[in-house]
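Inputs:
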Amino acid sequence: MASTAPQMDFDLVVVGGGSGGLAGAFRAAAHGARVALLEPREFGGTCVNLGCVPKKAMWLAADLATRMALAADLGFQLPPPPLDWKALVAHRQQYIAGIHASYRRRLDEAGVVAIPQRGRLLDAHTVETGDGMRLRAGRILIATGGRPLRPDIPGAELGGVSDDFFELCAAPARVGIIGGGYIAVELAGVLQALGSRVEVFVRGPRLLSGMDAEVVAQLQEDMRWHGVHLHLDAPVHALEAEGKRVRVLHKGGDSARSEAFDTVLFATGRRPNTGGLGLEQVGVALDEDGHVVVDGWENTTVENIHAIGDVTGKLALTPVAIAAARRLMDRVFGGQGDARLDYDNVATVVFSHPPLGTVGLSEEAARERHGEAVRTYTAGFRPMLHALAGSPQRSLFKLVCVGEDERVVGIHLLGEGADEILQGFAVALKLGVTHRQLLDTVAIHPTSAEEVVLMS
Ligand code: FAD
């Protein structure tokens, strides 16, 4: 019997209005496609609401706090400035509200039909909205992102996740953070700078596995200098309540039971939002962690269904989701048959204190791939402001080069300004810059950036 549910026809239905879904909807509409976008929450997804944007707002505040301390060391007579955390959050959320408004306006202008509902696939061409409407589509884009993972250990409910960090209205006096990835590092740095005493529990022997070991070792030193207590090789197996506080039970050397924390946060990875989407029923394959399996063209195992962004388990970064979505739409609606994202040499920044920017291969990865042909150059220095103020925070810049011509295959910058410096050098690396060409570039003095063209 034919369904009596209301039905609409589109060229493309996008499920998820985060970084990737919005970018895909805008680009498809620009190519003339009729597009519907399903998003039950605020537009912008993780990045705008619970990720990059609010995180960077907090990092900027933390950076100001660090600089005010340096200013005092330099001779400025500042009273210790108390932070009105609620005012900071109000500024942050006002900024985010501006992004939401801008998305709504741009969706209207682009003629995208935005539907504030969850989506679920009924078949390869039909998406059902939460309120029962059926959307028929030539193509479907899955862009449902992911969510923080709370590990399955006793007492896990006593800990929060990164989403909960953004609910804080004041700096908790003592914070325990569980995890060694970039989110753990970033939350630790922000909270420590804004007044908490932070301890981080890392399962393995170091933070940021996969990033260059030498540079990460310097970051660990800098973090310790800022007051963060790192417990390495300390896998956590339970949380335990003590009144309103929480203890972390771990297998680390110094003490198996931590002091009591006011707040404990897990930063132990993320899981894709693929449950309840009807994907398996229509034949879309998922991997063992639940990510949508896609090929190098963002095709799933069903011909007209595509997926991009965090839900695919590829590089979980906003600009990656956006770039993948745009190229996909250029290919399927814009007649650009070769358009697809090259996932190599994507630059990224950890907003630690100081920030760590990295593009290309770590020394370890380069040696695995190129063996003896690898040569590295490093510059370790105190940035001028820190040297003037007598602060021991150090920067470490590193080039990883390969072959006779010393082509640069990795650039790793830890230090003040690394977040802004890296982008231009990432272009150079992508274009195949050699060590000699960097040395042939006259430095800008006095800056930290000049160290990149002076390493020899
Ligand atoms: P998302 O942005 O997560 O969007 C998915 C959307 O789908 C959500 O809005 C969700 O509500 C919606 N959705 C889910 N299920 C359904 C359904 N059934 N129907 C309809 N809609 C649905 N990246 C960076 O590049 N730089 C950073 O500095 C950075 N910092 C981060 C900090 C934190 C704390 C976190 C958690 C992430 C950070 N990221 C950062 C990663 C970045 O946020 C993600 O890579 C990016 O948001 C992925 O975009 P996406 O479109 O794949 O998914």
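The chain is about 30% helix and 25% strand. Flag for discussion at group meeting.
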